[in-house]
Amino acid sequence: MNSEAPIDVVLIGGGIMSATLGTLIKQLQPDWSIQVYERLGDVAEESSNPWNNAGTGHAALCELNYMPAAVDGTVTADKAVSINEQFQISRQLWAHLVSTGVLPEPEKFINPTPHMTFVHGKANVEYLKKRFAVLKDQPLFAGMEFSDDPAVIGEWTPLITKKRNPRQKIAATRSTMGTDVDFGALTKFYFDDLVKQGAGVHLNTQVTNLTKQADGTWNVKLLRLVGQTRSDVNARFVFVGAGGGALALLQHSGIPEAKGFGGFPISGQFLKTSNPKIVAQHQAKVYGKAAVGAPPMSVPHLDTRVVDGETSLLFGPYAGFTPKFLKSSTWFDLPFSIRAHNIVPMLAVGMSNFDLVKYLVGELLASRGKKMKALQEFMPTAKSEDWELITAGQRVQVMKKDEKKGGVLQFGTEVITSADGSIAGLLGASPGASTAAPIMVDLLARCFPTEYPGWESKLREMIPSLGTKLSDDPQNAAASLAATAAALHLPA
């Protein structure tokens, strides 16, 4: 048993969530000790790696799944506005950290990239018109454009209209406020600064167990994977930000709040090209409509990506299935996650999501030709020889208890905290990284109720709109967008 003084904060997992939380805590409470444990040889190697996600900077500018049409055909903006509000908190935090030198010049992790939505077919065009009508007067969506003119859409992004059937009805929206974010680079910059501030980042170190002690601290069992040496530390607070590995650790902790939760893993692939002639013709992230039964994370999109200064295009994702919860974990993750307390919710989810199962089976059986056909619906001139297939990160969707249905599949993120606030963990996927800042601020309020009131003034200095809704004040929204755009070198 470890006899040294407890560490103030232990962060498990070297991804964007742990990095964001650690950075916030170091800004608010610089005297607290922080230790980070990552089982891989570097940080940001799983879901935060730029090739394992689309880097969209989710602000609901282009994602149709945040505004589905109701049964009566109506479309509401509430969810989209809420997502955008959350992304503005992330932007404000990044802007502040750039201004104070915690983060480097913004071009190293964020780049302006228009966000577009593209649909075809009469019904989809009518839906997009309704969506645009609802959003165009929203303060956070100011400047959004709509067109059903192929010539205009072709000016926005030529690859979408070049050699397309002229009789096909198409429509698109565009927002020049969109961004491409390299969350891998951002994560590494966060951790670099944490190390400068005295935090420890321990690579190739796996957390194998968590045990609550009589004094309220947590004993954290560690396995050093190089040399297979074991040790342990005690911590006053533990955050489990281990992506797909979070569920198992929360289950090991024994906290009742983790009971009833399960995970459904979905893998993905993208087609990628770095052909400069093709890349030069597309400067946007263009999202379409998901197939019937497809999860929101499988909405097809043709994206500009900027990673390490190189611009590429990605198309996908093509969903798949593996029982692994992480790209680098084991095939036993799913079966080993089953417990007496979550088997009913998991079975209920399986019985009520036949469309999802059918979709995944179809994706698993899809040939390369079928994958290319999906790309050609977006880009009619796409040729197979220009594109390579890459494997994206694993996403573990949350399954949890539901009184009426027995269990539901949740497409989003879920923060689990113990009753005393001494341990917390994050489950789920999209919009994930884009909303890491508001998620972690909320976690601070839940886990540190005594300290939080004393932190609020500093938090508002970093995030001016905290506790308010920019969408309720057009003038304030415009000022905030302009300020963060200037700080991050983005179009206003």
UniProtKB/TrEMBL annotation:
Keywords from the named record: FAD, Flavoprotein, Oxidoreductase, Tricarboxylic acid cycle
Highest rank taxon of the organism: Bacteria
EC numbers for this chain: 1.1.5.4
Top EC group: oxidoreductase
Catalytic activity: (S)-malate + a quinone = a quinol + oxaloacetate
Pathway the protein takes part in: Carbohydrate metabolism; tricarboxylic acid cycle; oxaloacetate from (S)-malate (quinone route): step 1/1
Cofactors that this protein relies on: FAD
Pfam family, one: Mqo
Family named by the database record: Belongs to the MQO family.
Name of the protein: Probable malate:quinone oxidoreductase
Species of provenance: Leifsonia kafniensis
Name of encoding gene: mqo
